[in-house]
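Researcher: Structure prediction, please.
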Amino acid sequence: MHAKFDDIRPYFDSELPEAMKRIIDSEYFPALAQFVFPDLSVDDVKKIAKGYANIYEFQSDAMSKFNEQVIARSVDKFTFSGLEYLDPAKAYLFVSNHRDIVLDSSLLQYLLLSNGFRTTDITFGSNLMSSQLIIDLGRSNKMFKVMRGETPREFYKTSLHLSEYIRHAIVDRNASIWIAQRNGRTKDGNDATDQGVVKMFCMSGGKNPMTSLLALNLTPVAISYQHEPCDFFKTKEMYLSRNDAKYIKEKNEDFISVMTGITQFKGNVHISICQPLQPEELQLSGKETSPNDFYKQAVHLMNQRIYSNYKLYDTNYIAHDLRSKTNAYADRYSPQSKEQFIRQYHHVLEKFGADKEIVSRIFLGIYANPVDNCGGR
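Model: Predicted structure follows.
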């Protein structure tokens, strides 16, 4: 890999043994070992970790078992669709809606690996790289750093650097990439692609944005959770940041969100790999079109792909009926599931002292907005 990307790239295979040594020496290693390998002793897991010779071995063993434990402990059914759109010999830019810090990308890697496809490099916000342990685990899992919170000038430089890395990975190395459609998780259930992300993709590909984007095999991905990861924390953040108030994260809040997303019950989970964007869809009509028009068209296509490939669950329809005070979707859920969701809903409301109407609208929106986005199907 080109040395210019040493500041953001994942680990090389040659760097894995030292990373494993640091992970083993961490005070958190026993807890990690017990979660991933519950039937083995910590000493046995240490031997396994020391034996990983390359990133593939780490991912195909430790990370696959991690995902299997997540599914066994917190998911009723994990399903997927769209693998027919992929060629194992090609690299893709997977652009996903973002609902959970870790699991959105982690479950996709598990899906790909389990079905004979190569895993992807994964974007990882610099704000999450808060300790050497997280850095080692992330970079050993093909994560590369995305800088956050720079000045406008620095933001341009880091965006170009990121764009160059993505293009280098896909075009030169034939390695796929996973990235979220926007900066940060969706908090309100409205998955919307940031036009700036599409512009960033094109920054490194020359003057023609269409040619630049098509070279990356952009492939939208829709992930749907029956029970939204961190729904309480998302409600809290939306509530406290309403009316343009600045939300200030508490100490270790990102870490708590990561752990909550991993352990919280999620019910059914579905990943839809959508058809890659096609040249004829991106071709704009009319003589005078600008790059901005092209970016808008790409955003529209990506959003429509994701919306049309949602897997809607009973929780989505129940929340929509509760918010609208109707029974429009009563045939999509049972009285028992509605009662269960209402208990969950009231449990969240009870954690807020006042403004329950505002909190109710926020919480129900997390589940109900996807129904509106895909046209109520």
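Model: Strands lie at 75-81, 93-96, 121-125, 143-146, 177-180, 218-225, 267-273.
Researcher: Thanks, that helps.
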